[in-house]
């Protein structure tokens, strides 16, 4: 039932053996981002999905930096922008279905960021 009865670790059919390993490289479909935050992440949000718009991921952290990445359909991630703020970012979110990011930091300074300007370097959408 559990393979041979030889010494511990030599049971090729047991659950502890090194028989067939799981060869899946990314079973949870994790996304690895370039230039990750240097400190604890407090908020991590995807933009609302709108047809024809890119998938964006924004993070806010205790290093007082907001970072924006664009995620391709294949799961590849490209750093698009980062913005320093005056204190650690405690929360952020996308404003409705627009491309505006609203956030709050420890210093209670209000911020609104236009993601389309950051991403496309164009006038506000």
TrEMBL record:
<feature type="region of interest" description="Disordered">
    <location>
        <begin position="1"/>
        <end position="34"/>
    </location>
</feature>
<dbReference type="InterPro" id="IPR036322">
    <property type="entry name" value="WD40_repeat_dom_sf"/>
</dbReference>
<dbReference type="InterPro" id="IPR015943">
    <property type="entry name" value="WD40/YVTN_repeat-like_dom_sf"/>
</dbReference>
<feature type="compositionally biased region" description="Polar residues">
    <location>
        <begin position="1"/>
        <end position="28"/>
    </location>
</feature>
<protein>
    <submittedName>
        <fullName>WD_REPEATS_REGION domain-containing protein</fullName>
    </submittedName>
</protein>
